[in-house]
Amino acid sequence: MKFPISLLAIALASLMAAPLQAKDKPKNVILLVVDGMGPVYTSAYRYFADDPATKQVESTVIDELVVGTASTYPDADRGVITDSAAAATALSSGIKSYNGAIGVDRNHKPVQTMLEMAKAKGKRTGIAVTSQIVHATPAAFIAHNDSRKNYNAIADAYFDERIDGKFKADVMLGGGWDYFIRPDRNLVEEFTTEGYQYIDDMAQLGQLQQDQPVLGLFAKVGLPWALDMQGQPRLKALTQAAVSQLENRKGYFLLVEASQVDWAGHANDIAAAMAEMADFVDTLEWLKEYVESRKDTLLVVTADHSTGGLSMGAGNEYLWRPDMIKSLEASPDSLALLAMEQAPGQRAELIASALGLSPSQAQSAAIAQAEDSQALSAAIKLMIDEATHTGWTTHGHSGVDVPVLATGVGAEQFAGFQDNTDIAKKLINMINR
Ligand SMILES: [Zn+2]
Question: Which residue segment(s) compose the domain that 127 sits in?
């Protein structure tokens, strides 16, 4: 007898809708957002990091963990290019909104976020980022505001808004003391009065008291470029400290953000971009090992959008040569500040030595005539773009799909193509069960 198709369909549908088995339910969820990391950044990083001594181009930890892609468009009638706020709201709540929205829907109504749901479930929650902690991505997981620009109001919300009387985030690590220590309000004092430990130096990360919430602010606004912090602790150190503070019997939700790949993209700065990618990869390697050494944690990594319209190859030449930026010890911004202290005639020499060029190769009208460090930085970046054959199409975002990486308990659910809101819905389903 043939099995009636309709019955088969119902049986299949009910199987698919059946609640996930406990083995698919992670106790701990870590979401790592790499702001601005379109797929070209992961390809570029592979060639940038490649060992020139071997003929083969070695794959990276990103390549090992990639399972799918995601579309990122904002609320339907707002076009196809998202900003970080709408994308972070989509990732935190599963709801699309307008560009600029922090944890609110298209009608400006607050939407519940996965961090808030985790807190309501009695889990610990945290954020570890390289931007200011009130920047769009982390803000859209903790606060609800009409505009990402309202940094002070967002900082206030971190203290004022509670879930069942509890603070929303147990661990907050990143930059931004400007928004917390203000003439009108000292939120650091308010948090410490309520039992938070406060640190403002990354060297103190190893001295944190366990089982006590923590606010750590390590810069006025965002952290300096990774390229200007070589040899110093950065995102990996923040992530390790956050994980060690968050581990507990009931589990945790942690948002990590490699915030500044996006900033490098906006600045059309390939040197800074690759250093931010390296900082992210350093963090990812540690997280992969951490998650895969246990049987109760899920790691999902994605980007909110791509930035800068980065292109490997430019000017019709079939070349991309990142060699020059491998040995850079300072960002073009810092290099420009340093060079501005020299007489105009001496600038080219300093820049040439930093880039491994002969002084005559670094002679250009733009460098000699730059009136301020910003103009000089732009001239240096242009010189690097020409030498590496790097192209950019915009100082804003682009609409390309982004990579999705996953490992650990339930990772298989993130395979294939999905929308950024689907990523959120899957994670929320896991957190809420
Ligand atoms: Zn951006």
Answer: 27-310+394-432
